[in-house]
Amino acid sequence: MKKKLISLSLALALGLSLAACGGKADPTPTPDAPDGSPTVESDLAYVKDKGTLIVGMTDFAPMDYKDGGDEWIGFDADMAKAFAESLGVQAEFLELADWDAKSMELDTKAIDVVWNGMTLTDDVKALMSTSEPYCLNGQVVVVNKAVADQYQTKESLSALKFAVENGSAGAEQLDELNIPYTAMQNQAAALMEVASGASDAAVIDLLMAGAMIGEGTSYPDLTYTVQLNDEEYGVGFRLGSDLVEAFNDWWKEAYDAGTVMETAKTYGVQESIIEK
Prior knowledge:
By secondary structure, this protein is α/β, with parallel strands linked by helices. The chain contains 10 helices and 13 strands. The strands form 3 sheets. Strands 1, 4, 5, 6, 7 and 13 form a 6-stranded mixed β-sheet that branches.
């Protein structure tokens, strides 16, 4: 009888404790992912359930740009469509007004991935989970051809008035050099600043420079001089997202099947693709 009374007392005490906490015990904490980032609900299931993969990007030829109408094309855009198709969903593209806010757009689920020739910087890796790198790149200084011979070294750049995409790898390079600049919405806007004479120079991606400036392009009077760094592109996902593994597996399959290189040749970036 004494044991029964003790057991009853313990049961009542536990019941009162649970009642004080709203009638149920605290849920078991969800363990962190292997890389230390918080785990989240399955992004893969979330994307499949809603039927769309929303891709955050900017106007950035040859990776993402309009075909003259409303269709987004480019190496990244075409590969994003193919990846979405592999998941059984449609790719939708959202042009980001502020590139610097891309991680917030992910966190709020305004977008599902950042796929726009995104440089894998330490800041990017701290704010989102990223794919394996798929493309090589660098940041280059763009100036008018008429003055290009004057700006062939990093030391010669300090007197120039720069225009750079806000929050970009190019802006990071100028910050490291302690060179001030005007922040622009995207790299295309930075190029227009130089073409119009409003700025002396811009820092843009090497891949974009190859497609957008020089003879036979929209900016025949511009050229690039100094390459400031070497870098790699990757795709960004929410921290802990299971879409990362799905993407890496799919990319390897697409590379082995020849789809990656075939698409790269279409947009003239085949020399920059990382072998898998």
